[in-house]
Write a structure and sequence with these properties.
The protein has a domain at 125-297: Endonuclease, Chain A (2-Layer Sandwich), CATH 3.30.870. Helices cover 33% and strands 16% of the residues. The protein contains twelve helices and 13 strands. It has helices spanning 3-8, 29-41, 43-50, 61-70, 141-151, 166-177, 248-252, 266-279, 285-301, 303-308, 348-354, 369-389; strands at residues 72-73, 79-83, 86-91, 126-132, 155-160, 181-187, 205-210, 214-216, 221-224, 231-234, 238-242, 256-262, 281-282. It is globular and about 60 Å long. Residues 18-281 form the Scaffolding anchor of CK1 domain.
């Protein structure tokens, strides 16, 4: 339980007022109510609750759209467990919804592949900053990461949003084949788009997923954020952390910055990884890949039907919404609240669709194209021969 929650249980506790200019300012009741309106009623209700001034809008249009698409009804999930070394097993826990540290009732997962014991540090450590693209004479970030992975002898612990780089995955397999324990924690929402998860199958590799923090409204709506931690821990001696994701595009297209740490600072990442690992859930690699394959097959099968259907939106459809205030400084069209109808001049292609075909023979399914031209040519030759006889 946090310190603020402990103080709230004390009737004699005195809370000092925190203004918006104070560094301690984090939670705002008006912002919380506005987010609840967004989750329950959509973007229009959100913008109406914050007023017409730009200073009161604490979310960008992209954030509003993102939160709206992530919102869902709250429900109890089955608590994932690891029983008898089998991943993906689950059972319902009898947890009280009003008890604050409900997740503490579930035992933390074990680092079953082993975790080395680290003694006291006798050196001050070092800090090195690398950029992508690299500075003159410096190695690329991808090379630095791969060299550390290839030199690992005990454990590799990775926390990242995406892991799709084939070269990195190959290094992890080689390390696992050398009896190096490999633990990977991926962002829970990104794993739904990851089709390379099956490539991480190995007896010495453990893959788990984790999301961000959860916002629950009083109306039973909830939204879960993302896990944006990115660091790589090797043998509890070296940490590589920064904005670099383990993808081909980050290696070749994006600008990145990473810091390589060694020494006592590694202990903080050691503790943080074990906290994230305890909060994460296992990934059933085989079943997930099979489900993805079946889902992709079904989508291809129904592709012709989907083309004829109206594209659906993740945002709730609002019929006959009230007009925004005329004196508002907000760009309601950019924020997606209203859509102005644009009249375009009718093109010849549009008019062509309404003109019925004069010759239905050209649109028959079972008539080959070459046969049509052959028939026309034969008719012309027959007429010419017939004319020559008379």
């Amino acid at each position: 339980m946090s310190k603020s929650q402990q103080q709230s249980l004390d009737e004699d506790a005195v809370f000092l007022e925190v203004s918006e200019t104070s560094p301690e300012f984090l939670h705002c009741e008006k912002e919380r109510q506005a987010v609840e309106r967004l989750l329950s009623a959509g973007p229009e209700a959100f913008y109406s609750s914050i007023g017409t001034g730009r200073s009161g809008c604490f979310l960008s249009p992209a954030e509003v759209s993102q939160i709206t698409s992530w919102a869902q009804d709250y429900h109890f999930n089955q608590v994932q467990r690891e029983q008898d070394g089998v991943e993906g097993s689950s059972e319902m826990e009898d947890l009280c919804s009003t008890y604050f540290p409900c997740t503490s009732e579930t035992p933390a997962p074990n680092l079953d592949l082993g975790w080395p014991e680290k003694g006291p540090w006798f050196t001050m450590g070092s800090v090195t900053v690398h950029t992508n693209p690299p500075a003159e004479g410096e190695p690329p970030v991808r090379e630095i990461i791969r060299r550390h992975l290839q030199k690992a002898t005990q454990v590799i612990a990775i926390v990242t949003d995406r892991l799709t780089d084939g070269a990195i995955i190959g290094d992890l397999h080689n390390a696992a084949s050398r009896d190096v324990a490999v633990y990977i924690i991926l962002n829970q929402r990104s794993i739904q788009e990851n089709f390379t998860i099956n490539r991480l199958r190995h007896p010495n590799i453990r893959v788990r997923v984790l999301g961000g923090k959860t916002f629950c409204s009083r109306m039973g709506r909830t939204v879960v954020g993302e896990m944006k931690d990115k660091f790589l821990l090797v043998d509890l001696e070296t940490v590589i952390h920064g904005s670099y994701s383990l993808t081909w595009t980050d290696a070749h297209l994006h600008r990145q910055l990473v810091t390589v740490l060694s020494g006592p600072a590694v202990d903080s990442f050691d503790r943080e990884f074990r906290i994230l690992f305890a909060a994460s859930l296992p990934v059933a690699v085989t079943s997930r890949v099979l489900d993805t394959h079946v889902d992709a097959t079904q989508k291809l099968k129904d592709f012709s039907n989907l083309r004829l259907q109206k594209p659906f939106s993740l945002e709730p459809e609002i019929f006959n919404p009230p007009s925004p205030p005329a004196d508002s400084l907000l760009d309601w069209e950019t924020m997606g609240v209203i859509q102005r109808e644009c009249c375009f001049q009718e093109s010849h292609l549009d008019r062509h669709e309404e003109i019925p075909p004069k010759n239905n023979m050209l649109f028959e399914k079972n008539t080959p194209i070459m046969d049509r031209f052959t028939n026309i040519e034969n008719q012309f030759v027959d007429k010419k021969r017939t004319a020559g006889l008379y």
